[in-house]
Specification:
alpha+beta; Phosphorylase Kinase, domain 1; five-stranded antiparallel beta sheet; 3 helices; 5 strands; about 25% strand; globular
Length: about 120
């Protein structure tokens, strides 16, 4: 099986990003978000997109490689949720899909609602 994130040439990298965009657009349909714009941010251990629903309502969509397990992602979401409820830090929180899950099947998609995008962008990417 070829890894979703594998690329050795610029051509393969562009093909990967094309596939990732299709995955992102498919994943977005599983959320009740009336988005207006999707923007690629970066490729690292995740492929990251910014979604804008309104100027005040922004989301981060991350596509994880198979190097990260569902349990690891669930743990990260639980930790962020705990920090969010502490009211001491401004952190992103998970957004459940229409069926109630923040984590999808591989490639794993993780949607985070970002409070104060400008403050969180540097932290998240």
């Amino acid at each position: 099986m070829i890894s979703f994130f594998r690329f050795d040439t610029n051509e393969e990298k562009h093909a990967l990003l094309d596939r990732a965009r299709n995955v992102a657009l498919t994943a977005i349909q599983r959320y009740e978000i009336a988005w207006e714009m999707i923007q690629f941010i970066q490729l690292s251990d995740t492929i990251t997109y910014k979604l804008e629903a309104t100027p005040q309502e922004r989301y981060l969509l991350r596509i994880h490689s198979d190097r990260c397990s569902r349990d690891e992602i669930a743990s990260e979401l639980a930790f962020l949720q705990m920090l969010h409820y502490s009211n001491e830090l401004m952190v992103p929180t998970g957004v459940a899909s229409k069926v109630g899950s923040s984590i999808k099947q591989r490639p794993i998609r993780l949607m985070l609602k970002l409070p104060g995008w400008s403050e969180m962008l540097i932290h998240m990417v």
